[in-house]
Specification:
binds molybdenum atom, globular, binds ligand MTE, 256 residues, five-stranded mixed β-sheet, five-stranded antiparallel β-sheet, alpha+beta
Length: 256
Amino acid sequence: MSDRLLLPRRRFLRIAAAGAGTGLLAGCDALSNRTGFIDVLSAAEPLNRTAQRFLSGDRLVREYPANMISPSFRPNGSINPQTLEYLALKAQKFAGYQLRLRGLVERPMEFTLDALRALSSRTQITRHDCVEGWSAIGQWTGVPLAQLLGLAGIKPAAKYAVFHCFDDLSNNGSRYYESVDLRDALHPQTIAAYALNGSPLPVANGAPLRMRIERKLGYKQPKYVHTVELVDSYARMAGGKGGYWEDLGYDWYGGI
Ligand SMILES: Nc1nc2c(c(=O)[nH]1)N[C@H]1C(S)=C(S)[C@@H](COP(=O)(O)O)O[C@H]1N2
Ligand SMILES: [Mo]
């Protein structure tokens, strides 16, 4: 679990911050400035200061035992994308797929599926709630988005993560997209998932990669994701409301 990587660092940072305030670190000029100290730590850590700011005090959603996994995870929305770029990748069993990290990152990066599978993963059994009135419990495996964004480096101006998808749900040349704030992007249960119930993600559920952002409703769980873009605003994107369904009137926050 990624938490194991993250928790000791969080604890360390809290101790460091507390120490700076109580004079525990007095006498050490290099550490006397809290911001400076965190910067020093960041240089040696995959997550930078912007990431760390969002990592404290986030509640986890409930995770379920394996015997509660739904026999089949109902697919919804796009279930078989027909855009040319998607069909080309699917024809090669997604061998040429890359997840791209773009926008307000220090280092734009790409990850093949093999590269993603080689990173440390998180597996979680959670309940998906669709506003159309159904729920399903599934086991998802993927890479914590915090880990990926930590590798790319988050620029201080970044406020939102936008997920760009391959599918054209309304069949008008547009593409499904979604966005969340950095707090949800960096939440420990937010993962770029490549497996459902122990098997590669089926096409109907978002192959080869979809997000699980577990504190959010179904429409904020983008499937067929090719790019994660960090932005300071989503106002100039598509309909300006931060997501496919948001542009049609749904709530942007979409929490459960
Ligand atoms: N790219 C993309 N992501 C999407 C959708 C979609 O149509 N396209 N539908 C959303 C909705 S409304 C729901 S309920 C879930 C459904 O996920 P599932 O197909 O795995 O059940 O995906 C969400 N993510
Ligand atoms: Mo949904």
